[in-house]
Specification:
Elements lengths: L5 E6 L7 H15 L3 E5 L4 H14 L4 E6 L1 H11 L6 E5 L5 H5 L6 H14 L3 E9 L5 E4 L2 E5 H11 L5 H15 L3 E7 L7 E13 L21 E7 L3 H7 L14 E6 L1 E5 L4 E4 L2 E5 L2 E12 L10
Parallel strand pairs: 1-2, 1-3, 3-4
Antiparallel strand pairs: 5-6, 5-15, 7-9, 7-13, 8-9, 8-12, 9-10, 10-11, 12-15, 13-14
Length: 314
């Protein structure tokens, strides 16, 4: 490594019930010991953090942006680095950590920092695809993992306005509450619009997922066939089913075996347009906005700092 390389670390101090705050000093110290100039960014909220991160990155030449937190922190960093040559490193110390888990980064803070440092020193980058979503209210966001609509998005909406309990217990309570009122939604779906493979579907469903990555929600493999380097999205649609049937099907998502049942349909696409009344899209666990939402894949949009052994197709 010639000269001192500048690394900007975005920290979400609340991620993982404070786990990120504990991990950050250890990881930052290791990066500094390895000879990097580390600039740490913390925002008052997500919007403020994004502004501060953009400002820090454009202020001086930046060798890498590193997300210290959960998938929401990765999502924020993605808005800055996607479509550029600035690589993204991940210190996965949030609650779900689906992106960190899929990249083989579930290690101790100093170990993950060494992965990032080694990749920078060795000039090792892994280009992967990213999804891009535009919602009805004009929000335009990149995502690395999964975009969803339907039951799980309504659970997120409910959980976000609850004040009790905290953590995973809040999400569980929101699931139980949503089960009592959720009804299947009439969707209009257009896949590969404008291409020879274009397909239009009008059907009622419980859950829709569009994946660049495989999982969300802390290990739910909703798009088990998704590959991060194939230039395609994985599109999953769960038909309308009874509540008892849904309760039997939904847990299978943790193993990815839900795609084997008749009511689940899996497709590949380069773009997906979703429309349904009263529905909200979430991506990487973050609220995007109301449907209709247009989603398309951008091949090789992101440069990642990952272990040397990691392969995007595993």
């Amino acid at each position: 490594m010639t000269g001192t390389q500048r690394v900007v670390v975005l920290l979400n101090p609340t991620s993982g019930k404070g786990k990120a705050s504990t991990a950050a000093p250890i990881a930052v110290a290791r990066l500094q010991d390895r000879g990097f100039d580390v600039v740490q960014v913390v925002g008052h909220d997500a919007s403020d953090a994004l502004v501060r991160l953009r400002t820090a990155v454009v202020a001086e030449p930046t060798a890498a942006v590193v997300a210290c937190g959960g998938d929401g922190t990765v999502h924020l960093c993605l808005q800055v680095v996607a479509g550029t040559d600035i690589p993204l490193g991940i210190l996965p110390f949030g609650t779900g950590n689906d992106n960190g888990r899929s990249l083989g980064l579930m290690k101790e803070p100093a170990e993950v920092a060494d992965v990032i440092a080694d990749a920078l020193v060795q000039g090792r980058r892994r280009r992967v695809d990213a999804g891009r979503a535009v919602s009805a209210d004009g929000v335009d966001r990149w995502f690395l993992g999964v975009l969803s609509s339907g039951f799980d998005s309504m659970v997120n909406e409910r959980a976000n306005v609850m004040t009790w309990p905290s953590g995973n217990a809040r999400y569980l309570r929101a699931i139980l509450a949503e089960l009592r009122s959720f009804k299947a939604v009439p969707y209009v779906v257009v896949v590969d619009e404008g291409l020879a493979t274009e397909k239009r579907m009008e059907k009622t469903g419980m859950l829709v997922a569009v994946g660049n990555g495989t999982s969300y929600g802390g290990g739910m493999k909703v798009c088990p066939s998704a590959l991060m380097d194939d230039g395609l999205l994985s599109f999953i649609f769960l038909d309308e089913v009874s509540t008892p049937r849904f309760l039997r099907v939904f847990p299978q998502v943790f193993k990815g075996t839900h795609v084997e049942i008749d009511e689940v349909h899996e497709h590949t696409a380069t773009s997906v347009r979703l429309d349904a009344p009263g529905q909200i899209a979430y991506a990487d666990g973050e609220r995007i906005g109301p449907l209709p939402v247009d989603v398309h894949i951008v091949p090789a949009a992101v440069s990642l700092l990952v272990p040397s052994s990691w392969e995007p197709t595993t």
